Amino acid sequence: MATPASVTKVTVECLEFPAVVTPPGSTKSYFLGGAGVRGLTIEGEFVKFTGLGVFLEDKAVPSLTAKWKGKSADELLNSLDFYRDIIKGPFEKLIRGSKLRTLTGPEYVKKVSENCVAHMKSVGTYGDAEEKAIEEFRYAFKDQIFPPGSTVFYKQSPTGTLGVSFSKDDTIPEHEHAVIDNKPVSEAVLETMIGEIPVSPALKESLAKRFHQFFQEN
């Protein structure tokens, strides 16, 4: 499979998300599907916390083309099914979340895990196994501190494993810090970013615009 010809890097605030990344020790590269800022409105001001980027295995474009080619960027942006097809697609994803402000691991994971649990409960996929997996997920972050520029990476496989790794910059670590083997939890992490109640509307918009271009080439 070939990387989309029009794939380019994206800069989010001071963070650069390259067009293509190859993890250390791997022959597989991932192209940048899109990137955007994550923030919260606090006392009337939009505070930016993280830059998020979603990298995908090359076969993501042909996998999605048949259903979505011919749709405008706006149609993609307004279709939850399009994002769910990315989330549940039969291809690997590598999500990069680089910090713009200092956060502790427990601070960060509390909000992420709450969003994941809320989503799984809303779609009926939250059971004992998912509760245990969320505990493992929270435990992985307990001793971490993320200064500006540091990164959390999530490696998602179509089989449902979620690899979590940490970096002091934007370098992909050689070894994963933890692996959570639970498909609903793995999918929920990306769902909370680009799904029905997204923490990063900017990331959704970036994915829609860029995939519209990729589909035209395919």
Automatic annotation (TrEMBL):
<dbReference type="InterPro" id="IPR044164">
    <property type="entry name" value="CFI"/>
</dbReference>
<dbReference type="InterPro" id="IPR016088">
    <property type="entry name" value="Chalcone_isomerase_3-sand"/>
</dbReference>
<feature type="domain" description="Chalcone isomerase">
    <location>
        <begin position="12"/>
        <end position="214"/>
    </location>
</feature>
<dbReference type="GO" id="GO:0009813">
    <property type="term" value="P:flavonoid biosynthetic process"/>
</dbReference>
<comment type="similarity">
    <text>Belongs to the chalcone isomerase family.</text>
</comment>
<comment type="pathway">
    <text>Secondary metabolite biosynthesis; flavonoid biosynthesis.</text>
</comment>
<dbReference type="Pfam" id="PF02431">
    <property type="entry name" value="Chalcone"/>
</dbReference>
<protein>
    <recommendedName>
        <fullName>Chalcone-flavonone isomerase family protein</fullName>
    </recommendedName>
</protein>
<dbReference type="InterPro" id="IPR036298">
    <property type="entry name" value="Chalcone_isomerase_sf"/>
</dbReference>
<keyword id="KW-0413">Isomerase</keyword>
<keyword id="KW-0284">Flavonoid biosynthesis</keyword>
<dbReference type="InterPro" id="IPR016087">
    <property type="entry name" value="Chalcone_isomerase"/>
</dbReference>
<dbReference type="GO" id="GO:0045430">
    <property type="term" value="F:chalcone isomerase activity"/>
</dbReference>
<dbReference type="InterPro" id="IPR016089">
    <property type="entry name" value="Chalcone_isomerase_bundle_sf"/>
</dbReference>
<comment type="function">
    <text>Catalyzes the intramolecular cyclization of bicyclic chalcones into tricyclic (S)-flavanones. Responsible for the isomerization of 4,2',4',6'-tetrahydroxychalcone (also termed chalcone) into naringenin.</text>
</comment>
